[in-house]
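Appendix B. Chain record.
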Amino acid sequence: MTNNVKTVELYLESQKYTNKEVIENIEKAVNEFPEKDVKVNIQINEWGVYEIKLEYLDRRRRRGRTK
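Structure tokens predicted for this chain:
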């Protein structure tokens, strides 16, 4: 059985975007695929850029593994 995870990475400048704008961008990306569960990881790298990683998981497949 293969692990069916799709990943999207966003890069935003911390000096250009406020925390509110970063959260709004994440919410837009999450809402693009409402049938998927999303795992979000946010960090700021050494150049002051937000690195946002979104991992989309299939809900049906995820529920099947937890049984």
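Further analysis of this model is presented in Appendix C.
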